[in-house]
Fold this protein.
Amino acid sequence: MNTKRRARALIGAVAVASAAALVLAGCARTDTGGRGGAASPGITDDTVTIGISSPLSGPVAGPGTCTADGAIAYFGGKNADGGVAFGDGKTRKVKVVALDDQYDPQKAKANYDQFKGSAFAIAIGLGTPTNRAFRDAAIADGVPQVLTGTGDPLFSDRTKSPMQLDAFPTYVEEGRAFGEMLVASGTHKVAVLSQNDDYGKDYLTGFKEAVKDAPNVTITKELTYEVPDTSLDAQITTLAATGADVIFNAVSQPHLTVSAMRKAQTLGWLPDWFLPSNTSGVAPILKPAGADAFPNVYTIGYHKTPDDPAYAGDADVKRFLADIAAHTKQPEIPEFPHCMWGYMAAAILDKTFQQMTEPTRAEFMTQLLQIKGYQTPLMLAGAEVDTTIAGEPAISSVILERFTGTGYAPIG
């Protein structure tokens, strides 16, 4: 269904955990977007700088750091091979600078203010509220804010967000895919737990669109939680009492997902689980949660999983793991899928650079929105990059997957 360990090297890919560690040049310049062929800020004949604002500390630090490290690993490998050959005939090293926003919108906006005069584009950062915090400013300043990790449809709206493009399938699409599977697979009672913000609401919107008027799918109860909450025990206890055989679990924090699954087991409640793509990792979530106890665990995927034995000899996976080991401090096999997503998003940036005939932000946006039929490294068969579809992210095809005990396998 279509849904090491060396320090970060001075070879062009650099991660910086705090703004104080960063010296940015040219912040006082007014960006003209490089119209007329004049180079935009953040690009020279030899280098181009990409800024990332992502949670590198705090409760979302694991996924946030992994997102940045995926990009750092990709361009670390490209730089080690000589750099990226741009469409204007220049070969450039790509410098990736990551700043910590702690999943705090105000800090994200402060990071943007530092980046806008020295980074050619801001890309790949994780988080809906944090990316929303500087979206308007990026539009006003003509600064690309692209391949974001939000799942928010607003970032793929070409009219409302002309300097933006989200990277991966929207939360609405993920929710819809799971709903469609239930409609086609028998009679189900579904308990719903969602984050009380746009993240949770988008998942629920897609799910409800799919099951609307379906006589075989009944929602028994809907509960929400707040991002700062430290436990979901009360919600799980209430939902378990409904006797639902499925739980639609639109939760973004890995530690809460783990505790929720474990709480369900203590109650003797063993429903099928739907996990969002960003909280479905085998090592950080399913293993500590004892996911084998549940009949089925589903998620949405579009990438190969390095810890899945099925991909042990895959060339893409081998290169990814080598780049991660050489250019980041991630474990030998990263715990979070966000490392793969950052790597794939960086490959889309690379593809865009190869097509650019002028060193300008305007040309970058033009070429970014003309990619079609491209498969990034790590991408599953059946998925592809198509940035030409208005209202859709760079990757909009979704593949429903089921946990096998060791990894995920696509189902149809």
